[in-house]
């Protein structure tokens, strides 16, 4: 059965290098996770900017805490809900102030059911926060020229602040060429090499940060996890999650190591980490023995495994063996309900940021 | 006394974030290094592409070798000389085939002596391999507009394949703005965020790789050091050396960790590495105890330390305590004569590549 990572499926051509095929985006099929060790749910109504004092308070996780044998659950679903409420308030404020509503455009080509579902969910998410959504649906046999024309129209449309091309595109199209046509000012996916370059460089700021890794870091922030000076291990080096997640952690002064398929001793290296972000798409690959006591674990993987007892015949598990992680980590994201819901929240956040930047609003 | 790293001094604005000030570019003041443990000099006439068999031969270094208590010296001066000979041959071949000679343009503003020396050395290096060099020298009080005009002229000039703006620029100029004016097709320094982004992304290729980190990797290649699957630690995360060096190592399937000023246990992490690249500008910071027996050490630092016995009153040392490294590493670059000479060789290489790309020559 195919595995994936909980990133938005409108990912770039580079995602094809990953050993995963798309299965579910973790947003569509979210359900409340009820695991045997699902304890200590935090109230995610944390301030966006944390003071040192609040970080020190007991509501927050420190990588060295883990005094008990059960990890705190990092509740991505609740955090994402809160972020959407914040976005909603900002959208309203912007509308009141200057009469502008942020807009996200999605281009869908062909009739793939999964793609249609993702697009529908993005539309719904936009509606829920008051962001305008635009959609162009072209037939499977549309020409590349038609897709480029739609992109060009959205590039020129001042009511559109973000553009997504739903992937995969039909095989007769040059995906790279099409994605490159999206103006960098509206590339809310953040996959443009210029954005990645700026993300990598000190003293530069990317226009957009890719949604899934941004969601991972946002979870760490909202749960008060100290990143500066901490050892961080990112498992997986994909263009859409692993690599930008490593760059983000480095921007926050973590000491980062990237573990990948060619790494000879992934367990040993991972066990040194205060913060683990796993994005490989291998069910239960990261066992308890990989985790340092008190580490914080962000699990980006969403892997379907056969489960006859489930009505769907499968259930979703992460890259991390959740039960084992719960016994050793200070905090861990569940799958589903961890990183998944954050991805679409960050997409909305990027769209709002784009609108604010366009209209010079802080 | 100021410290630096052995990178070409025409570096971008981002370099200003580094804790180093410029002192010497390691190319200007090269001299034969004669250290007490300067043993086992290799003949650097290695094939550019190494077969597995040749890698296995005793002429090459493996990270696990170090059976003796004295490291091989990675002779950057000899390798750079060889590369210049190769470039020279290619330049001649290109001229014979299509009548085109690669060209490098340097823009110098003001009368800083060190800048004038660097420019003169680049010019000499170009001459030595048959690359045309162009120079514009503007007065200190030139306007930004005049600099931009010179860049624009070189951008449009088909006989120019690489453009360098010698830094630092006078303080009344917007360095970022000026550097951004160099067309990416001629950005032989490779510092453009688009190049860095492509370097970071799997499946993408940068137009140019920054000269100093490219030189480090070239040394590893030429000395047959296996990178794939190896633990690599890069010390320093500058835009011009550390960060791109880490990206390059990762592209070659090393497992990379980046150690920096916020890292709590740099010694412990560095000691895990099979390959160390140090680019921090701290004299003798990396002691023998930081180095795993048999590791390969690339020292990018060029730090002047007071030395009353020297006619100049100082001598140059690396980030790595050379004498201690020699006792534990499998191979180590000396300072000077290690990475330094490689930087300008890679600048020539980038200029040649640019000309070849322009004229579609493999």
Explain this structure to me?
The structure is a homodimer of 362-residue chains. Chain A is of the alpha/beta class and 362 residues long. Chain A has a domain of 206 residues: NAD(P)-binding Rossmann-like Domain (Rossmann fold). Helices cover 35% and strands 14% of the residues of chain A. Chain A is built from eleven helices and twelve strands. In chain A, the strands form three sheets. In chain A, strands 2-12-9-8-6-7 form a six-stranded parallel β-sheet, sandwiched between helices. In chain A, strands 1-10-11 form a three-stranded antiparallel β-sheet, with no helix packed on it. A three-stranded parallel β-sheet of chain A has the order 4-3-5, sandwiched between helices. In chain A, helix 8 links the parallel strand 6 and strand 7. In chain A, helix 2 runs parallel beside helix 11 and helix 7 crosses helix 8. The longest helix of chain A is centred in the first third of the chain and has 23 residues. The radius of gyration of chain A is 20 Å and the shape is globular. Chain A starts with a strand and ends with a helix. In chain A, 54% of the residues are buried. The interface between A and B is large, with 37 and 37 residues.
